[in-house]
Amino acid sequence: MSISEQHTLTQAQQKAATEAAYRARRKARKHELVELHKAVVAAENAKKPKTPFLIAFRSRRLRRDGIVETLPQEFARILKACEELITNKKRFPALYAWGGDGVNNIQCRTNIARVLACILVNTDLIGGRIGEPTEAGIKTISWDQVQEDYALRFGEYIAPKSFAKALKYLRRAGYLHCERINVNVNEEEGAVRSAPAYKQLTERFFSDLKVVRYPNIVELILATRQRQESKGLRFKWLSFRDIAKKVQEIYNGKKLDGYAEATASIFQAFSPTPAFTPH
């Protein structure tokens, strides 16, 4: 959209147009990752035609750079537990008890199982925090990022509504808790921006998952944590203050970019008058 067109739109129309363009970019990105999944799987199958290569509920992860990495051993059993939900509607008792009629539908259970698998590979299995561990602490991640992981893991695009429906079932079962992060970045303008929410899998979920309470699996999880901590990673949430600071920095940067674009528009609208030289 050109600057002249932006000036003719109302603020609400500009916001709607911006959000529509943003959604389109996110959707296109996920389709790119679906194609990446297909290309990687095809390449692996070409190496070993007799052994079909799968990611899905296997203890692997396809990274965004196209590299397949093996997850820690405990994930083989954990992801298998997710897959069991597809054929066993009672695999997760609270989900069966509180999920409603939808849990009786195998397509609904497949959707939940897949989303759950994508969440778990981004989860601190000791504390239940869903995010990315760093040296500063666990960074929150967006649901959009988990949807991208879905494309990489299953080679399919999941519609945001289908993803949201799976989350609804997890919340209804008492398995998932989220706390929004809203930051007032400009009191005068009343501007509020958000960061990816704090997301947590509950004790109730892990009790129903069961496998993370088996002594041999607990041993593996603790060994993985020890290796990660030896690399300097911390497994406490980043504080609200740290997250808010980053949101403020992004807002300030975008606001200054807006000023720069407005200034540049003067030059874009300028048409120099051709200079005639006497013969």
Automatic annotation (TrEMBL):
Where are the annotated segments for Disordered? Answer: 1-21
Q: Write the record's keywords in alphabetical order, separated by commas.
A: Plasmid
Where along the chain is composition biased (Low complexity)? Answer: 8-21
Q: What is this protein called?
A: Replication protein
